[in-house]
Amino acid sequence: MSKTITTETSQLSVVREAILNAARWGITEFIVEIVKSNIDLLMTLDSDLRSIFHIAIAHRQENVFGLIYGLDTAKYNFIPFCDKNDSNMLHLAGELSPESQVKLQQISGAALQMQRELQWFKEVEGIIPPMLKLHTNGKEETPYETFDRSHANLVKEGEKWMKDIAQTSTVVGTLIITIMFAALFTVPGGPDQDTGVPLLLRKKLFKIFIISDSISLFASTTSVLMFVGILTSRYTADDFLKSLPNKLIIGLSSLFISIAAMMVAFSSTVIIMVKGQLEIVIPIVLLAGIPIGLFVWLQFPLLVKIFISTYGPGIFDRKMKWL
């Protein structure tokens, strides 16, 4: 009889350790199947007195943490838990531990890494009762103090990353503004000597030139203003959640539009000048597409990542149902 009990205890210990490891590595399916067979296994704690949800937060495993939304009211049995260091869930979300840094390496750019950390902190903050938000742990720190201390270096790295992009893009935007502004006063065909009205005013290609030149000028001006806003930002931690990404999205998008419009203006001017000589027009128009392609290749993936990270569906599944 004692051997049977010992065997069952040993097997249960193995299962509990497997659940904890699954939480660390983000193996959600395993946890769901095991817990469905025995709901009491949800109360499994590791040596630091952390539940699978605390472990998921510490290791930044969003899929495992998302299981807490499938517990409905039962999730409030886990939220008040504190580990052996008296840290609650929000403390763990605010701590940039070695485990969480491993997950952050999958995200390119310090600013986007900082945004992801803020998304985690805000998500956990949303389910934590107000009294726990000011709870101090063994280091006598509130969750907010833990976050500020732990992320101080990442904030500096994010600031440098943002400013490097903004400074480089500002130079490009300023050059485009200068070129497009000058082009408006040196229109193809020149002005009428008596009236000052452009001679080719009624030509469709000339209208395309004027419209694309104006779009390029306005878009590049917008991009420069956005990048100046990035350079002069306060760079508080919360700025990395929405404010700075929004400015970067608008700045890069406007810069792309300005470059594309500039190439259209250039191509329309060439067509007017060579008067339909296709053997000259076609190669020049194709070459004009190279700068647009280079921008798409170099900067568009970054723009997409920032857009999805800021406006996408998010990494947390709040509608999960699994029990």
TrEMBL record:
Highest rank taxon of the organism: Eukaryota
Keyword Nucleotide-binding: no
Keywords: Membrane, Transmembrane, Transmembrane helix
Pfam family, one: PGG
Residue ranges of the TM segments: 165-185, 205-228, 248-274, 280-298
InterPro entries in alphabetical order: PGG_dom
Residue span(s) of domain PGG: 159-272
PANTHER family associated with the record: ANKYRIN REPEAT PROTEIN, CASKIN
Protein name from the UniProt record: Ankyrin repeat-containing protein At3g12360
Lineage start: Eukaryota, Viridiplantae, Streptophyta, Embryophyta, Tracheophyta
Gene symbol of the encoding locus: LOC18507101
